[in-house]
């Protein structure tokens, strides 16, 4: 059997593309200056590898779809409702979950709280940290609350030692904080490199699927907001969760980007407190707190995140520009969409905005790109331009087309019900949605259907 030898290989830091020589532009992801040189050790080759490949091929055989037996395993509830919702109803045994987010956003705090709830259910939980000492973890744990004896801690970065510890202790839940600190002695590159991250994730994937262990992996993010390391990392795991929010604000949003066991439309809302992260049961009430009374340019719109209806305050400020080119800025929504809606206002309704600066903001810090927010943005801009406030207790939603028409959106019944529950008395929505509601209108709220943006402005 031939001995392993070292070789120099170039990897793309964005997508993991491998090349024998350095290149300025990656052929895989078309990014520039992303190749780094790493030393890798090639293993056995020739007849040894051929024999092992023949054994693996002999062990596996194709199976018909009807021959595959299905065992419906119950999900493990974390007792954190917001996290269970994003995961699709709980933790699936043998799943590999990647949790990403900005530094200091609360990833470790959330996972430590999850370990606390799981250990309280008499589950064996192993928390492995490569960034903090045992004393640092205990300080955070003391702030969160009491922990049961089912939680074990390990501070280690050597992949071989971690794999041996997992096989010996046989935990049901494992947390790795973080994947960028893990290293394998079989790979000669530094921890956090493309080769090390890929090798470490592959080892944890085999452990999760082979032993039926649910593993959570914490991943650092780049300045662009994506998980650091090769793009193949997100393809290897079963679920990808992103923890979003302003670290200087108290709210946090957990969003599912990929989920093989559930929907990716759900979000979880948390509030950062001294004792840890607290669930926000009613995000609509939380987002609308502090809304000014009788102010122009302030409109309450309705958005949908998965099965959850959220009411948000859309703020707009329109004023005469002091420069030749007016300035446009959007926070929490797509700037190009705002420019398009302002062009519809000017062309179809006759609102002169070509010489005005315009600033649009979604209060509360959430980022929403759903088309149902179009009518709310249009009404906020028109209200600020005319300096006329929208009536209190009024909520609007609907998609706006280029001809100025207001198109129907999905799940209008749930949106109206949420508005009525929070005490709103008037709802402006697309005429098609109003007709579809029929007599299923909650008590205490008046529903007004509009066919165009001009009709909506006339109603207000």
What is the class of the largest domain in the CATH system? Alpha Beta
Strand line-up across the major sheet:
6-5-7-8-4-9-10-11-12
CATH superfamily membership of the largest domain, which one?
Answer: P-loop containing nucleotide triphosphate hydrolases
User: Which spans of ≥5 residues are poorly predicted at pLDDT below 50?
Assistant: 44-58
Terminus-to-terminus distance: 82 Å
CATH architecture identity of the largest domain: 3-Layer(aba) Sandwich
What distinguishing features does this structure have?
single chain, 460 residues, Rossmann fold, Ribosomal Protein S5, domain 2, 3 domains, nine-stranded mixed beta sheet, seven-stranded mixed beta sheet, 21 strands
Provide an overview of this structure:
By secondary structure, the chain is α/β, with parallel strands linked by helices. The chain folds into three domains: 5-55, no CATH class; 81-281, P-loop containing nucleotide triphosphate hydrolases (Rossmann fold), CATH 3.40.50.300; 286-459, Ribosomal Protein S5, domain 2. It is built from 13 helices and 21 strands. It has helices at 47-59, 81-87, 107-119, 134-144, 159-169, 194-211, 232-236, 283-287, 335-349, 374-386, 412-421, 431-437, 453-459, and strands spanning 5-12, 18-19, 35-42, 96-101, 125-129, 151-155, 173-177, 214-219, 239-244, 251-259, 267-273, 276-279, 298-305, 308-320, 328-331, 356-362, 394-396, 399-400, 406-407, 426-430, 446-450. The strands form four sheets. It has a nine-stranded mixed β-sheet. A seven-stranded mixed β-sheet has the order 15-16-14-13-17-20-21. The longest helix is centred in the middle third of the chain and has 18 residues, at 194-211. The termini are far apart.
């Amino acid at each position: 059997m031939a001995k392993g030898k070292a070789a120099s290989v170039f990897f793309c830091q964005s997508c993991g593309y491998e090349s024998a020589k350095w290149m300025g532009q990656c052929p895989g992801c078309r990014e520039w200056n992303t190749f780094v040189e790493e030393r890798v050790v090639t293993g056995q080759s020739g007849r040894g590898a051929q024999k092992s490949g023949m054994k693996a091929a002999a062990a596996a055989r194709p199976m018909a779809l009807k021959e595959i037996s299905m065992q419906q395993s119950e999900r493990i509830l974390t007792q954190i409702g917001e996290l269970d919702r994003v995961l699709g109803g709980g933790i699936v045994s043998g799943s590999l979950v990647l949790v990403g987010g900005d530094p200091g956003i609360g990833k470790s705090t959330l996972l430590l709280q999850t370990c606390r709830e799981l250990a309280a259910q008499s589950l064996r939980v192993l928390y492995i940290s490569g960034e903090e000492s045992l004393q640092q973890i205990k300080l955070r744990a003391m702030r969160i609350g009491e922990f049961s004896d089912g939680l074990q801690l390990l501070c280690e970065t050597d992949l071989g030692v971690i794999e041996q510890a997992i096989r010996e202790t046989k935990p049901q839940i494992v947390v790795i904080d973080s994947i960028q600190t893990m290293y394998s002695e079989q790979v000669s590159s530094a921890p956090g490199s493309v080769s090390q991250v890929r090798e470490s994730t592959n080892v944890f994937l085999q452990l999760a699927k082979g032993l039926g262990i649910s593993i959570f992996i914490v991943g650092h993010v780049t300045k662009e907001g994506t998980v650091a390391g090769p793009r193949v990392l997100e393809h290897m795991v079963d679920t990808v969760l992103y923890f979003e929010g302003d670290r200087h604000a108290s709210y946090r949003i957990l969003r599912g980007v990929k989920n093989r066991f559930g929907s990716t439309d759900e979000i979880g809302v948390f509030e950062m407190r001294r004792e840890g992260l607290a669930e926000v049961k009613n995000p609509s009430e939380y987002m609308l707190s502090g809304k000014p009374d009788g102010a122009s340019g302030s409109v309450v719109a309705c958005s949908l995140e998965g099965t959850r209806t959220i009411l948000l305050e859309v703020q707009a400020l329109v004023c005469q520009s002091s420069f030749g080119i007016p300035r446009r800025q959007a926070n929490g929504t797509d700037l190009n969409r705002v420019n398009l809606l302002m062009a519809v206002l000017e062309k179809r309704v006759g609102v002169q905005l070509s010489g005005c600066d315009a600033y649009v903001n979604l209060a509360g810090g959430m980022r929403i790109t759903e088309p149902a927010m179009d009518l709310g943005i249009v009404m906020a801009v028109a209200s600020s331009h005319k300096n006329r406030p929208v009536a209190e207790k009024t909520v609007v939603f609907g998609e706006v087309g280029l001809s100025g028409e207001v198109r129907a959106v999905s799940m209008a019944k749930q949106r109206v019900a949420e508005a009525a529950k929070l005490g709103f008395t008037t709802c402006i929505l697309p005429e098609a949605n109003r007709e579809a509601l029929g007599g299923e209108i909650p008590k205490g709220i008046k529903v007004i259907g509009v066919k165009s943006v001009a009709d909506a402005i006339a109603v207000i």
